[in-house]
Amino acid sequence: EDEDEDDESDDESDAYSDYSDYSYSDYSETESEKAEREKEERIAKARKSRVARHEELMKIRTPDDLRSPICCIMGHVDTGKTKILDKIRRTNVQDKEAGGITQQIGATFMPAEDIEKRTASVVSDAVESGEIKSASDFALKMPGLLVIDTPGHESFANLRTRGSSLCDIAILVVDIMHGLEPQTIESLNMLRSKRCPFIIALNKIDRMYQWETEPNRPSRASLNAQAKHVRDEYQTRLDKIKVEFAEQGLNVAEYWANPDIRSYINIVPTSAITGEGVPDLLYLLCKLTQTMLGKKLQYTPALQCTVLEVKAIEGLGTTVDVILINGVLKEGSQVVLCGLNGPIVTNIRALLTPHPMKEMRVKGSYLHHKTIKAAMGVKITGENLETAIAGTPLFVVDHPEDSVEELGDAVMEDMTSILSKVDRSGEGVCVQASTLGSLEALLDFLSSDAVRIPVSGISIGPVSKKDVTRASVMHEHKRPEFATILAFDVPVSREANMLAAEMNVRIFTADIIYHLFDAFTGFMEEVNKQKKEACALDAVFPVILKILPNCVFNKRDPFVFGVDIVEGTLRVGTPICVPSKNFTDLGRVAGIEVNHKSVQTATKGTSVAVKICSTAPMEATRLYGRHFSHEDELMSRINRRTINVLKEWYRDEMRKEDWKLLIQLKKTFSID
């Protein structure tokens, strides 16, 4: 009976525990699931509403209301991209850039009135040649032209991708003296992959021998005014470049001799120094965008805005440079951006633009706006913008149905791919840059197959004592070469420099990104060279030797005799042993002679004189004839460490047959 009572009480307690489990844990779990489901439903509803509103706004576009087309300038380093833009603006941004190389994405707005003045000579030539009936046929319907000047060096591939995804039309700058270069082809492939129309600016025509300069003249008129030998040289170089483009699968032609603009890419001969051909470039840009991109340029109130750069500006705090492609931005509006630590929700404190013919990158007075309509390069100031990520969209909360939660999810979609470049774990160098774009370029370089340098920390802004302390941790990890800060375009405080000297932390600084690459690559080469030299004695190359019985010149330490190299490579410093005599060690090779000439190495099939010196007291007691003879094969003394050293530092010096011999010797020496 007692047992039955116990059983009943157990059943009751089980029932009670089941009830308690259900009433507490199961119920709370259901609550959290319900909250999550409701959140997902809210986000889905808000997204559906936003997409529907966007589609409705797209339907009300009209051909009478066009936005400014966005133009992108691309090409190889030093082809004259920024100089062409400078000539259009009559400014000199180029000389303000370190080394004359574009370091950040800039944007410049050119008003329609200015474009009409600059293209007047080309329009009159077009009327004379019958290309257009009258000047009124070239009436500009768009408010102007927005030009993004994208950096040209390969380090900025990610910035260029970001730029070309924004643009409606591109200018591909090609140096007439050098033709298609690696980055030209890279830019070409990028434009083709994004199906972006482009014009070729065949730059540096003034570099041809005895070219007679006519500043700011249309290129066709300028070419016709040249001597015959100059025109002949131009034609030869043009034909060569046409062939290079044909190899890339493209037909190209001078714009005035283009048989079909849909199947031939237009070429405009230009000189960024004299301004020749620049009016043609502007004329063609406007003509092509108005005729071919009409629908794409129709303005829509649906906001389309992309963050280009995040930068701290003195007096303004952290600002974001954005390209407003469509829609309107208003001062005081609530915006949602993608941030390193999650979505950023803030209000627009100020909307700033450069003066119409200046560039966003050049510091100076800005114009303040209450509202800005697309397309325009805009600098936005506001709170909590420090962690904003370049290359991501910006959304405005401007409708009652807009959900900050949903917009936060939308902006964070691209973050995964950008953050995958940032590896904050383990060992590696510290990277600092002035902008996030530069930081991305550095991270891309360091993670490339050719370099593969790990990054342990990233930061934006000046190098401080805190950054030096963080980098010094690598000494504790026994990786002193990584106790390094790569600082691009940022100042280093005096205290940081003093602490770096004290803590043995190297700080590499440069204003030009690839100078930083070169400096650090040179440093790593030196470090690797020192490491290689430090373990040179452990680099034992596999070799099998046979003593020539008639060539034994010294039978005791140091041994001197003639040998045949049966297999492998014999090097000075190789430790030699006799496996058949219980792996008796003889010493290390101190010298090798071939025909009475000293050499450092000798390979299979060679007969050489070799000198072997003892490195331990026991080895000094060995005698030829007693401990070994010409009947015994001599081999290099290998072990697990020597094999690892060969794999890590001497792989490039090992031949295929050397690896095969190493596998054979591993069995002889019973190495796992």
3D structure, described in words:
The two termini are 69 Å apart. The protein is of the alpha/beta class and 672 residues long. It contains 16 helices and 29 strands. The chain has a seven-stranded mixed beta sheet, with helices on both faces. Residues 1-27, 97-105 and 152-161 have low confidence and may be disordered.
Terminal CA distance:
69 Å
Number of E strands? 29
Query: What integer is the average pLDDT?
Result: 82
**What proportion strand?**
15-25%
* Backbone shape: elongated
Percent helix? 25-40%
Largest sheet: 7 strands, mixed
Low-confidence stretches: 1-27, 97-105, 152-161
Number of helices: 16
The order of strands across the largest sheet is: 2-3-1-4-5-7-6
Strand pairing plus helix content: what structural class? Answer: alpha/beta
What is the rounded Rg? 36 Å
Helix-strand blueprint:
Elements: H1 2-59, E1 70-75, H2 81-89, E2 106-111, H3 112-128, E3 144-149, H4 157-166, E4 169-175, H5 182-193, E5 198-203, H6 219-224, H7 228-247, E6 252-254, E7 265-269, H8 278-292, E8 304-313, E9 317-326, E10 328-330, E11 334-337, E12 344-347, E13 350-353, E14 367-369, E15 371-373, E16 376-381, E17 395-397, H9 404-411, H10 415-419, E18 429-433, H11 436-447, E19 455-460, H12 465-476, E20 484-488, H13 494-503, E21 506-510, H14 513-534, E22 543-554, E23 559-571, E24 575-578, E25 584-594, E26 597-599, E27 601-603, E28 607-613, E29 633-636, H15 640-649, H16 656-668
Parallel strand pairs: 1-3, 1-4, 4-5, 5-7, 6-7, 18-19, 18-20, 20-21
Antiparallel strand pairs: 2-3, 8-9, 9-16, 10-15, 11-12, 11-17, 13-14, 13-16, 22-23, 22-29, 23-27, 23-28, 24-25, 24-29, 25-26, 25-28
Helix pairs in contact: 1-9, 3-8, 12-13
